């Protein structure tokens, strides 16, 4: 499952964030990103999906049962 | 009257209101108990004895004057050390903020102040709330009052331990990946994680703004209900705080304790929550379902959709937001973090923006699908909080070693999906294991159904009769 190159990831993190991941940290990060990618691949079934993150609050309110 | 520290929060508040007990008497009892249990639990970061007694005397004088008093008048509380009070240090379990006074007061503290509560101490917690075990290299580990060799759970470690040890009558915690529910479950008390944004986060330390949720830990469901009622509701200082009407939580708790559960459908997950369960936890879960059925509830098996993916999505969000919030310090003060917290935060630098946004973008659809499927079949879900008995501290002292990621993930496996979904959950004691350690269960419901959960939880609590058991300290 883990097709992300930890060394490449560490290089990106250094360039983008100015933070040095050691080899253990890079391997951990690569494994996590691979897991996230797999979960997203399993859940995104359409080529496009356009629900804005800000809609989450309204969704919660809409799903609330009418009781107090 | 029973020993003061054995009274519940509501009982104490009513006794103070009726002037059967003074706030000073309650506060002196709490301070004495805190001093007694601190060596075993390490629940307290700082105990403000002089301030607590002065506040108690002021509360007693106010009561004597006959003015209006709040529902928590004179009741000593203490909170996870991440709720800021202007001018006071809140270290957030860290070395970085150990001596930094806050520039604002958290809305939740202001609301508890307005309700008359006393804030007598700062409670231990995981460093920056990163950590489900209660370990802390800067302030010492939280230790479980039922057995100090075992973890309290985290990150609200001190909240769980102090309340369970009868040193305070209630405490606030925060729950980004289980941090209210896990200490509640492991310490044998009630933890209420409300719907995301039900409670204002203004003035509280942020870990992951899309997931952070503030809520109470208390000894009984009714106590937690009173605390939630005091802190819930919209807040001009926090534009994300929900404007949804605040429920009549305490009324629901009373109704639950007094009545049965006729007409209530309790969902028992047929998948995910039963995976890899310790036999004792499974037995307790099943016995709890039978007890709920005995109260008149209809037990229905429900299939839980998508859960195997939700922890990854929660990770994408928490890791990215955590790395964003800590980015500056991680670059400039890296050595001031513990190895484990540093290792966890730095992973967030590697999450692509598209993954983070996809995890957020999927959220409305997934919570809709979850509620449509699950809460069409039942009114609330009954599930274990933790798949294993309370672990020993030594066995979960992962540091930044090779077992860290898997070990921490396993502790929150049954908790974290509800953070992603933003749903309310009550964690409550359901039994004890072979080591005489508490076993906790979760009751989860649809958004803003806290009153429903409180009613069911109170009915269970009343029938189970576990709330009076106290740790052997």
Estimated radius of gyration of chain B:
20 Å
Element order, helices and strands of chain B?
Answer: HHEHEHEHEHEEHHEHEHHHEHHEEH
Mean pLDDT of chain A: 90
The chain pair with the largest interface is: A-B, 43 and 53 residues
Largest sheet of chain B: 8 strands, mixed
Helical fraction of chain B equals 40-55%
Enumerate the strands of the largest sheet of chain B in spatial order, edge to edge or round the barrel: 4-6-5-10-11-9-7-8
State the distance separating the first and last CA atoms of chain A: 46 Å
User: Mean pLDDT of chain B, rounded to whole units?
Assistant: 97
Global morphology of chain A: elongated
Instruction: Give the percentage of residues in beta strands of chain B.
Output: 5-15%
The SS-based structural class of chain A is: mainly alpha
What would you say this structure looks like, in words?
The complex is a heterodimer of chains A (68) and B (473). Chain A has 68 residues and is mostly helical. Chain A has helices at 6-17, 23-43, 55-63. The mean pLDDT of chain A is 90. Chain B is of the alpha/beta class. Chain B is 41% helix and 12% strand. Chain B contains 15 helices and eleven strands. In chain B, β2, α4 and β3 form a beta-alpha-beta unit. In chain B, α7 packs antiparallel against α8 (249-258). Chain B is globular and about 60 Å long. At the A-B interface, α1, α2 and α3 of A face α10, α11 and α12 of B.
């Amino acid at each position: 499952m883990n097709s992300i190159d930890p060394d490449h990831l560490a290089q990106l993190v250094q360039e983008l964030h100015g933070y040095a991941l050691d080899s253990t940290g890079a391997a951990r990060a690569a494994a996590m990103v691979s897991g996230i990618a797999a979960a997203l691949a399993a859940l995104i079934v359409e080529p496009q999906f356009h629900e804005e993150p800000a809609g989450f609050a309204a969704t919660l309110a809409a799903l609330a049962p009418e009781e107090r | 009257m029973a020993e003061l520290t054995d009274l519940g929060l509501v009982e104490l508040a009513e006794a103070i209101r009726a002037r059967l007990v003074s706030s000073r008497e309650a506060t002196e009892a709490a301070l004495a108990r805190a001093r007694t249990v601190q060596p075993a639990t390490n629940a307290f970061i700082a105990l403000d004895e002089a301030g607590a007694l002065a506040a108690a005397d002021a509360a007693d004088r106010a009561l004597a004057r006959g003015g209006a008093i709040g529902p928590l008048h004179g009741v000593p509380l203490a909170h996870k050390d991440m709720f800021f009070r202007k001018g006071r240090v809140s270290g957030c379990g860290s070395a970085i903020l150990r001596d930094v006074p806050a520039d604002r007061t958290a809305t939740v503290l202001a609301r508890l102040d307005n309700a008359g509560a006393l804030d007598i101490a700062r409670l231990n917690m995981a460093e920056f709330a990163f950590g489900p075990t209660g370990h802390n290299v800067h302030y010492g580990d939280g230790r479980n009052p039922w057995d100090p060799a075992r973890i309290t759970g985290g990150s609200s470690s001190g909240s769980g331990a102090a309340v369970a040890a009868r040193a305070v009558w209630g405490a606030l915690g925060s729950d980004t990946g289980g941090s209210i529910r896990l200490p509640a479950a492991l310490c044998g008390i009630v933890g209420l994680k409300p719907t995301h944004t039900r409670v204002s986060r203004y003035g509280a330390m942020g870990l992951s703004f899309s997931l952070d949720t503030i809520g109470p830990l208390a000894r009984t469901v009714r106590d937690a209900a009173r605390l939630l009622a005091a802190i819930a509701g919209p807040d001009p200082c926090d534009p994300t705080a929900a404007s949804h009407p605040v429920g009549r939580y305490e009324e629901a708790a009373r109704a639950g304790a007094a009545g049965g559960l006729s007409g209530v459908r309790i969902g028992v997950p047929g998948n995910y929550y039963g995976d890899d369960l310790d036999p004792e936890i499974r037995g307790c879960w099943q016995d709890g379902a039978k007890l709920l059925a005995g109260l008149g509830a209809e037990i229905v098996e429900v299939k839980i959709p998508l859960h195997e993916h939700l922890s990854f999505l929660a990770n994408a969000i928490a890791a990215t937001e955590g790395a964003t919030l800590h980015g500056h310090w991680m670059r400039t003060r890296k050595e001031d973090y513990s190895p484990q917290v540093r290792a966890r935060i730095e992973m967030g630098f590697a999450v692509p923006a598209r993954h983070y946004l996809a995890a957020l973008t999927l959220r409305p659809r997934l919570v809709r699908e979850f509620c449509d499927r699950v809460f069409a079949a039942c009114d609330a879900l009954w599930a274990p909080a933790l798949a294993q008995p309370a672990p020993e501290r030594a066995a979960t002292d992962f540091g930044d070693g090779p077992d860290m990621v898997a070990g921490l993930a396993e502790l929150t496996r049954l908790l974290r999906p509800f953070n992603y979904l933003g749903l309310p959950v009550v964690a409550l004691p359901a039994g004890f294991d072979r080591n005489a350690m508490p076993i906790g269960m979760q009751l989860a419901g649809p958004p803003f159904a806290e009153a429903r959960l409180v009613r069911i939880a109170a009915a269970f609590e009343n029938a189970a009769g576990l709330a009076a058991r106290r740790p052997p300290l």
